[in-house]
Amino acid sequence: MKILDQIKGAWKKLRRLPTAERFALAPVWVQLVAIFITSAVLIFMMAPFLSLRLAYMIFADPAYYSEAKGPLQLVVGLLQVLLGMVLFSFIISVLSAALVKYIENIRSGSLGFVRSGHMIFVNYNVKLPLILDQLDIRAKERSATEEIVLLFSDIDTVANFRNQMDPKRWKNLDIFVRQGDLMNFKTFERISVFEALSLVILLPDGAQSHFFADNINLKILTTLVNNQQYRKHLEERKASRKPVKCSIELSNNADSRVIAQKMSQALFTVITPGDVIGSILARGKVDIVFYKVFFEVMAFDGSTIHFVNPQVFGLELVGKSFEELYFGFEGGTLLGYSGINQAGEYRMRLCPFGQNLTSSDWLLFLTTKVNRIVFRPSDDSFKLERLDDIIPPTESVAKQICVIGNHNPLGNIDDFIDVQSMRALKEAHFVFDNQEEYFADKFLQRLKSSNFENIVVNLDDETGFRLTMWLVSKEGENDDFLKKIVTILGDPVTENLLSHYHLKFNTVLSHKLSARYIAQISFQKNLDRLFEELAFPEGVEFNLLEIGKHIPHNLVNDRKELTRLLAGQQLIYLGIVDEDKNVYFESSNFTAAKQILVLSQGGNENPDSAKRATPESTISKQKSVEL
């Protein structure tokens, strides 16, 4: 009875297999196997009537039907021809359907990605194309092709990106667009997250609010760090000093930042508008030069910052003083050291005059071509003398600033201007309920008569664009007035229209600066600490020496001599600034120079800055240090 029951059970299973529904839902390879098995059975069934050879030949090629002889072979052969044509049409249909499905999967982003050495960007926002612009520049400089995987949560975002993507824009990038459930770790496994060099979670567009957008990213972060295998992978890579460059973008909400930092345990860099970028924008409102400096340094073309292993120079540099190294290198400007201290902690030393290079240190350079840097030992004495004629710079200055609107927060602007200037700014901060008041001639006359040094247009993109164009139309011939205008924008298209329309006023694009920052740290994680150090007033910063005020005109003639004189004040020469606030890094031509750009230890001449700092700005600084 048991044997009979087993036979019945097997028969029931066999009867369930050849149903049309199961065939239609089966994988392609199963469908093809079923067709080939059926074909083989038919050939063997017809063999007694036609011979095995003739049965196969007629099935494969109807032309062989002409070899059939006699009534029986003619009838059976005709049946074989018909069955062969039907089964071959099945094969064509299955393969066609598979191809259509494959193409649809490509278009919808449902395919996996099985490679290594790629970069992953999760979510879409307006900064993503700008980030890709920077990655394309880097790939072009390296004569390489970078593989980029974009992971979105829905098919509509995939379709919109594909429709807008111009293949000619990113010629040096191999972009793969994928879609899936971002709260499921299998989605990340499908795109080879363990083999990726970097992972960037962008703040998604289209969320109801920043609160919901933060929640989406925090859930994605939770999905990643809760996977013990992936967390162990990140920790092992970090311990081996080859970390995966992971970062997550959040809004300015303080709680979201704290949550992300606690969850990731320093495995992810947390990016918010109020940290590094916020401080740069705040200082850019005081002097547009500093925005331009960071805008240039954060790009992959032009003068950028590089970490270089001293061993690549083939010389024993360990133990040499900073001064000897600073004057010995050509092809780039040495900014400092970066390495691991005896406690195993990462440290960065900028402007380390009087300090020697240790065996664990790397070198930090500002250069246009890192592979052109050479070291030429010199027998000259590196004793430096302080010259009283050179007045060290400070990041806190006296500046008459006017701000129109309150669309973006002022940030820690109080760290970069003195108390009197801050009081004047509060009186010169114009916010009108009626937008028409911004376009009143009376208001324009007030702007012109108040002798402001900077006029910051801090409105939404549409109103800011309109007001800037209106000011240009009214004062098109007044270059001195137009140079004072600094328009803060978020939309790259609007910024592009304004910057190409008129070159006298200045535009600040926060998203573009953010995109460059994200692109940089997606390749070199330690750059976030460097930019953090440079962006805030504590420690080392970019500073300006005004020629004729901080340094005599007669000392600004020869670059080598100027570099030596500035080093005597523990200042690193970086470049010049002309009358139109254009920055020229590592320039040897001082004809048009109005200011000297240096790297120096901050000297805050505003002792009340910390006292009047708002709670938000204080929190921002503390969190940056934790990062």
TrEMBL record:
Compositional bias (Polar residues): 615-627
GO biological process: monoatomic ion transport
Signal peptide: none
Annotated keywords: Membrane, Transmembrane, Transmembrane helix
Keyword Secreted attached: no
Xref: InterPro entries: CASTOR/POLLUX/SYM8-like
Gene3D superfamilies in the cross-refs: NAD(P)-binding Rossmann-like Domain
Region feature Disordered, mapped onto this chain: 603-627
UniProt keyword NADP present: no
Residues passing through the membrane, by range: 23-52, 72-100
Top-level taxonomic group: Bacteria
Protein name (database record): Uncharacterized protein
Organism encoding this protein: Mariniradius saccharolyticus AK6
